[in-house]
Each structure stands twice: as C-alpha cells, then as structure tokens.
Amino acid sequence: MTTTCRKLAVFPAFHKVSGKRVVVVGGGDEAAAKIRLLSETEAEIVIFAPALNREAGAALIAANGDWRGKTPALADLAGAALVFVATGSEEGDREVHALARAAGVPVNVVDRPELCDFYTPSIVNRAPVAVAVCSEGVAPVLSRHIRARIEALLAPAVGDLAGLAEKLRGKVAARIAPGAGRRRFWARFFTGAVAERTYAGDLSGAEAEAFRALEMAPERGHVSLVGAGPGAEDLLTLRAQRVLQEADVIVHDRLVPEAIVTQGRRDARRIDVGKQRGRHPVTQAEINAILVREAKAGHRVVRLKSGDPLVFGRAGEEMEALAAAGISFDVVPGVTAALAAAAENRIPLTRRDASSALVFATGHDADGETLPGWAGLALSGTTVAVYMGRAVAAGVASRLVAAGLAPATPVAVVENASRRDARSFTGRLDGLARIAGGTDPDAPVLIIIGDVVAAGAGAVASALLAEAAA
Ligand code: SAH
Fold first, then answer.
1. Which CATH class is domain 222-332?
2. Which class for 267: exposed (0-12), middle (13-18), buried (19 or more C-beta within 10 A)?
3. 27 Cβ closer than 6 Å to some ligand 1 atom
C-alpha cells in the first residue's frame, strides 16, 4: 500500500463543548496539561482528585475550573461531554474508565491508548478556527512538531479574520447570489486587502475594506513580487509562503526550485518564464505583459524570483509596467544569493579590520574593455559580491589586477549556495578564471572578492591559510 491510500483508524471531528461539562480525573502533571488544553475552549471544567499538585492547582485557577476533592461516582460523570483520566495509577484509571463507559461518556485515559475512545490532538488555536493534529497516539512528538510548523504558518490574526467573516456572512448572503460570484468574494476576502489589513492588526481598516469590497462588484487583481531565497526551502520567508498559498497564478523563474513553487495552492496556475538553454526565452516585455494581463483578469499573481526580487531581478521594469497599467502590487523580500554564499562558508561580509562596505555587483556589464563601475570600490577594500560573474570572471580579474588590486586578494566562488548540491572553491584573484571555469555551467555561481574571505571562521579560511603557507 502506498502512503497516500492508507486509511485512518480515527475520524477527526470537533466536539461542541461550549457551556458543557468536561471532567478531568486526576491531580498531577498530566491532569494539569489536560486542564490547560481545555482552558482554550469554552467548556466548564470540573476536576475530580483527592489532592492537586502545584501544577494542577495553578492550571485549575487559571482555567477557572471547579475542584471536587474526591474520586467521581457514576452520577458525577453522567451528562458530561468528555472525560479525561490521569489518576496516576492503573487501577484508578481502569475504574474511572469503566464508570465513564457506564455513563456513556467518551473517555480518554492518558498514555493508555487501549482505554481511549478518542485521542487528544495537538491544537493550533485561532478561534474560531482550530487545527488539530493527531498521530493516533503513535508519535506525539511528531504531532507537536507539525503543530509548531502550522503555528508558524497561520498568522495569529486568522481568528480575527474568521470572526469578521462571521460578522459579514448575512450581508454577503443578501447581496451576492450563491455560486461562483460568492465563492470569489470569499476567496478575495481571505486573501486580499481585507486579510492583509487584519494580519497587520488594523481591524477597523479591514472591516471598512470588507464593506468597500461588498460595494464594488468587479474584482481587481494584484501582483506580489516575491523573493524565493537562494534555493533552500527553509530559507523562504513565512510571508512569502503565505502569499504563495494565496496566489491564483505563479509566474516563476528557472532558478526557483520546484519544491518552492509547489508551496503554492495546488490549483494555482503556474507560468514558467525561466530562460533555459535551447529554449526560446520569454522576453522581459512578454513577462511584463503576462503580469498585467493576469492581474487585469482579477487574479492574485505571485511573481516568484530567486533570492531577493529587488536585487538583479529586473523588478524595476516590472513595477513600472504594473504602475503604468494601474495595477496594485507589493514586494516581499528574500534572502539574496550573496548572503547565502557567505553563510555557506562562514565569511563575514564586513569586518572592522578588513572591510567596512559591501557591494552587490553584476559581472554582466563587465565584459567590455573598461573596468566595471565597482572596481574603484574593490581597490579601497570593499567586499564585492559578483552576481552572474562566471562567464566574465577572467576579464574582471585581469582588469582588477591591472588597476592595482593585489593578485593575492582572496576570492570565493560558491555554486548552488544553500542547496544540497552546494560547492565552494577558494583561491586568489589571479586564479579566479581557472576556479570559475571549473564550476558547473548550468548552476548559479556567486563570487566573493575581498580580504574578508580569508577572515572567515570556516573551511574557506583554513584552505586559504594553507595555500598561503605552501
Ligand atoms: N535576485 C537574485 C539574483 C538573480 S541574478 C538574488 O537576489 O539572489 C542570478 C544570479 O544570482 C546568478 O547568476 C548567480 O550569480 C546568483 N545566484 C542566484 N542563486 C544562487 C545560488 N543559490 N548560489 C549561487 N549564486 C546564486
């Protein structure tokens, strides 16, 4: 059987507990944990235990629960919504379990799956939205780990957004006929300006925006220029991840790995505008036209670029085209390649005794006869991170040396920074052409030039020191 068609031994459901009695039997740490969990709900919490330890006592007070200093009788459990049992002894657990069964109340006995009618999930609370994670009692640590990831994914204000939706539900139903139009309204509501204001903490602004959206019939599209980071999935920002999941259309470059593009909604349309060898390249003008066309059709568009969108990403032209077409847009920053390359090799990009400035430079306009514009800065000790520099490495190095930069200036060449297949090479400026020539012609390569390369704490520095000593 494949993992996708395995069946669950449980059916996830959400119990209504508002104003109902939920009983916890036990006064130790386990009972305290259940009391704390239940205190996230509107249940009336009643604890049965001859004695409470400090944890349980504190949890009881915080949860405003009732304490009965005895073991429960059948009548105490009858009519309760749920019973949690953690008496601390197997015999005690079994007795209460039997009572709960007799009373017909679903029961959970902590750490005894064979005595459980239901499992306790790990909960993400964004009331009225709840996410519950369960591993059928097999791997509670995994459940907690998954829960932490979902916590990070769901902005705390998701609950506020759901609350606002509840408030407007009647008005929307009265104004927009059921069907595609209404679905579209809600899709926009949960992903557009209303959601953005809510996440920014501006609840009254969000409400005003929601009313405006209700008034205005036609939907307007929006473009987000999003930085995908250097390639590693976990270097994507939380905001980029959220915006991706809200996109109707994702327009991406070749350098953005598949694993990141697929973090978008499954039914989002993907348009690959990457320049690939042997394929007709999509021109910048065509890309601009695609963005404008998709936004005008009312879609939420994510323009996904590697690294940071504002660093050598031609974002300027795209923003100009969007502004000219009257389309709203925003920018989500990303980790640019130079930072990933430096981190990969533990190279300090600035250092008090070596370099007080950092330049993001491109090798592209450096293939003429003249020195690139940033050469003067390199001469005065600035660290230079060269993007798109592989093909022009030889020319850049020889002209920098001719202009007076020491041939022994340390350089690092980093291929596929932050990815699993990352490779780093180090050496001297006068060997840069040879080093760059040895890299994979299909992989992105970033070059760092400057004394800081040898001042790093990592393998790069030791390699350079060894080379210098030899
Ligand atoms: N906007 C991107 C840069 C796009 S230009 C950013 O901020 O990183 C493309 C160039 O970026 C490549 O030629 C290469 O020089 C560099 N680059 C992008 N990703 C890289 C990576 N993972 N490792 C090394 N260099 C990378």
1. alpha beta
2. exposed
3. no
CA distance 396 to 389: 8
If you search the block for the tokens 């293939």, which residue do you land on? 367
Catalytic residue among 34, 253, 305, 308: 253
| Cβ neighbours, 10 Å, residue 294 | 21
**Per-residue model confidence (pLDDT) at position 251:** 96
Protein residue whose Cα sits closest to atom 18 of ligand 1: 337
Long-range contacts of 49-58 (CB under 8 A, 24+ apart): 49/25, 49/87, 51/27, 52/27, 53/27, 53/28, 53/29, 55/28, 55/29, 56/26, 56/27, 56/28, 56/29, 56/31, 56/32, 58/32
Query: E strands, 127-282, where?
Result: 129-133, 222-227, 249-252, 269-272
pLDDT band at 142 (very low <50, low <70, confident <90, very high): confident
pLDDT band at residue 1 under the 50/70/90 scheme: very low
> pLDDT value at position 217?
47
Fold of 338-469: 3.30.950
- Tell whether ligand 1 has an atom less than 6 A from the beta carbon of residue 426: no
Centroid of ligand 1 to alpha carbon of 445 (angstroms): 7
CA–centroid distance for 312 within its chain: 23
Q: Is 223 in the pocket of ligand 1 (CB under 6 A)?
A: no
What residue owns the CA closest to ligand 1's atom 2?
A: 307
Phi, psi of 110 (to 5 degrees): -60, 130
Q: pLDDT digit string (tens) for 224-280? A: 999 999 999 999 998 898 888 878 899 999 889 998 998 887 778 999 998 665 567
**CATH class of this structure's domain 21-120:** alpha beta
168-201 confidence digits (pLDDT tens):
999 888 888 776 667 778 887 888 789 888 988 8
